[in-house]
Design goal:
The chain is of the alpha+beta class and 730 residues long. The chain contains 23 helices and 25 strands. A hairpin with a 2-residue loop joins strand 18 and strand 19. The relative contact order is 0.14.
Length: 730
């Protein structure tokens, strides 16, 4: 009993001793040893499915792949409007035009006279790939891990189990090899259909590779793409290659800044093709191989993903110039310094917004978006609607960065579905009016107000503001959904929507043919309580028309599979622009880009002959009045057919701690982590200040416990004394 009391006082002492030390926060989710290390702490919500650049095209994947792979071009980090600059290329390629006879044409030649365009790209010498076992060889130059046997594979469970790595110089052939992979029969590149229309011979090349794959013998899983010639790409020398495309396509240069055109070494393809590795999920989709500033060293997509500085990264330096105001905003302090600044980036998976928000406030995440439930706590409007952080946020040194996102969020209709798309002419007309009715009924002004705290604007078409081709004001409204009243757009009444619904054959939401209520199905990826609130709101929007909306929620990878197979009826999705041109939005509804038919990006599987013809005409034109007229007609066709509820264009709000520096957000350029900087010492100091444990309740409880034990101790002593006396007398 005395020992118990002594232990209680000892615990009290230890508690206050630890509190006084203050060197470690009890709620710290990270290793104590990492407290002041140069690490960026970030989050991701959905596990990436593809990290192979030939297949990856989702925003949850690009945040990783853009840091690992290097296409030849990139965007200037600070300049606006967005400006292409070299990445691994020596300089921006100059396109040359040729006629059918192969004669070079002047730069101002008519698009109708241009048979081919040629882009010649020269890369910088001396660039090395990251360390990787695919490059490991012995003294004789034999590959160590290209032909693994069962015994060797038995001890391999992850990439780091290979004891040796190697590297080699980046060559022009690595870029050519990746372009050939776009047509690989075992891969499903989302841009193959589009690129097959442009890169000369790519469609025929796909047929050649498919036949070669079928002719493989002995269960071989690899065939060397270097053995198969592709007409549209040519290696000029060790560091130079050419891409030949059909006709004139001014937007093609933007694709050269995307990871689809990043280099893949044949050694990596050979290494990962081994069945034993594929069975253990050691693949290019899981372990990328690049020349970029970072490499993926840990991949647990259900918990954590880690990027670390590539020790072989070539010389690249922070920009020396930017825009007016950048110097005043401390964005040019690091001009001329070698990149990257951060040693390691730890991405933690956070499915719910509340724990993500709380960890940000505690200093355990360096930046965060702002959910609707925390908006009022974080942001206040001052002056003429200008947004700034609240006083509480400012006291913590937290700052707000805003930008107009070159993005759109929309609700799509699967045009292959008999109800919302139609199977014949009569059904298609009925389905069109049904879609138009729903477009009026779903009040996106209300959605933005409730769920986005006003951070967005209702979309009138797929084209985002800030993109050439976008129309503003009266001439930019969607006349199917809006009227122009008092110098602003006004959503049409629900009575107008009900009239269209009756014309579609569903008066008051009842199928005129069967007498049954109209039931529609909505596929989403929703998990959080905020998501559930949005879905309840969406059901109410459909209920205005007496339509029953059944929500089918699933994880993102399963959702992608359903979209790819055409098993969704109505779905919710979004698009971040890959490059600043209207074509990058309008191609999302181009018929040959159908998700089901051609594995393209047309998730609605929309196919309108007039629209397709206009798209094919528009895509080859330079910006100008004539191109704008064609875009206007394309948008008019889309509004009439309503394959999407056009949804809204978001405004991005981000919160950043004082120690997080060199921030200039944008959605076009994705390889931005190399420019960012962390003051790890300041972060460690603030974490200690903000997370000091409140220990006095524990101490008080222990004191009360110790005091309450004194009567028991006294009684125990009396009992022991009386026992001792009786023993002595006996």
């Amino acid at each position: 009993m005395e020992k118990l009391v002594t232990t209680s006082w000892l615990l009290i002492f230890q508690v206050f001793f630890l509190s006084a030390c203050g060197e470690y926060n009890w709620n710290n989710p990270y290793s104590v040893a990492d407290a002041e290390k140069n690490i960026l702490y970030n989050v991701f919500t959905e596990r990436p499915k593809h990290l192979d650049p030939v297949q990856s095209y989702s925003s949850n994947e690009i945040q990783f792949t853009a840091q690992i792979y290097e296409p030849p071009l990139q965007y200037h980090y600070l300049k606006r409007p967005f400006m292409l600059i070299p990445a691994t290329a020596k300089e921006l390629p100059v396109v040359k035009y040729f006629d059918n006879e192969g004669s070079q044409l002047p730069d101002d030649a008519l698009a109708t006279d241009i048979a081919h365009s040629v882009y010649e790209i020269s890369i910088k010498p001396g660039i090395l790939f990251q360390p990787h076992p695919a490059f490991a060889s012995n003294a004789q130059g034999d590959w160590l891990y290209h032909d693994l046997n069962e015994q060797e594979l038995a001890s391999v469970f992850k990439l780091s189990d290979f004891p040796q790595t190697g590297t080699r110089e980046l060559l022009a052939e690595d870029y050519v090899y990746q372009i050939k992979r776009l047509a690989h029969p075992r891969l499903h590149s989302p841009i193959y259909g589009l690129m097959a229309d442009y890169i000369v011979g790519l469609s025929d090349y796909a047929k050649v590779l498919k036949q070669a794959d079928q002719n493989q013998s002995g269960g071989r899983t690899y065939f060397d793409l270097r053995d198969y010639r592709l007409e549209g790409v040519q290696i000029v020398d060790r560091y130079t290659y050419r891409i030949k495309i059909t006709g004139k396509y001014p937007q093609f240069i933007y694709w050269l800044a995307m990871t689809f055109f990043a280099p893949i070494p044949w050694e990596a393809d050979r290494f990962y093709s081994q069945k034993g590795l594929t069975q253990k999920n050691i693949t290019l989709d899981w372990y990328p191989v690049g020349t970029g500033p970072y490499m993926l060293t840990e991949n647990d997509p259900n918990l954590k993903m880690v990027l670390e500085k590539n020790p072989n990264f070539h010389d690249e330096f922070y920009p020396a110039e930017g825009m007016p105001g950048d110097a005043e905003n401390s964005l040019l302090i690091d001009s001329g310094k070698k990149l990257p600044f951060i040693d390691k980036i730890i991405f933690t998976r956070e499915k719910e917004s509340i724990p993500r928000w709380n960890k940000f406030l505690q200093g355990y995440y360096d930046a965060t978006g702002i959910g609707s439930d925390s908006f009022d706590q974080a942001v206040q409007l001052v002056g003429q609607g200008e947004a700034t952080v609240t006083e509480a946020m400012a006291e913590q040194g937290i700052r707000l960065e805003t930008t107009v996102a070159v993005s759109t969020y929309y609700m799509g209709f699967n045009m292959l579905d008999p109800v919302v798309g139609g199977s014949n002419a009569n059904e298609r007309e009925s389905a069109r009016k049904l879609r138009q009715a729903i477009s009026i009924a779903v009040d996106y002004e209300e959605f933005i107000s409730i769920f986005a705290n006003g951070r967005g604007m209702p979309a009138q078409s797929p084209i985002s503001p800030g993109i050439a081709g976008y129309r503003d004001g009266k001439e930019g409204i969607n006349p199917v959904v809006y009227e122009w009243l008092n110098d602003q757009p006004q959503r049409k009444s629900i009575q107008a929507a009900k009239a269209l619904l009756a014309e579609a054959g569903y008066p008051n939401g009842i199928d005129r043919r069967t007498g049954a209520p109209l039931i529609l199905y909505f596929d989403v990826t929703a998990r959080s309580s905020e998501d559930r609130s949005k879905l309840d709101w969406m059901r109410k929007q459909f209920q205005k028309l007496n339509i029953q909306l059944v929500v089918r929620s699933t994880d993102y990878n399963r959702f992608q599979d359903k979209i790819r197979k055409g098993n969704a009826q109505i779905f919710e999705w979004g698009w971040n622009a890959d490059y600043p041109d209207a074509e990058n939005f309008l191609f999302l509804l181009y018929g040959p880009q159908s998700k089901v038919r051609n594995s393209g990006e047309n998730a609605a599987n929309y196919d309108n002959t007039e629209y397709n013809q206009l798209f094919e005409q528009m895509k080859n034109m330079d910006d100008g009045p004539q191109r704008q007229l064609i875009i206007d007609r394309m948008v008019e066709v889309l509004r009439h057919d309503a394959p999407w509820l056009w949804g809204y264009h978001p405004k991005d709000y981000g919160l950043y701690h004082a120690w997080y520096q060199n921030i200039k957000p944008n959605r076009i350029s994705n390889n931005n982590l190399k420019y960012l900087k962390i003051d790890a010492a300041l972060r460690a100091q603030k974490r200690r200040e903000w997370n000091e444990p409140v220990l006095w309740p524990i101490a008080l409880l222990l004191v009360v416990l110790a005091i309450s034990l004194f009567p028991a101790v006294a009684a125990f002593r009396r009992h022991e004394s009386s026992t001792a006396v009786r023993s002595a007398s006996s």
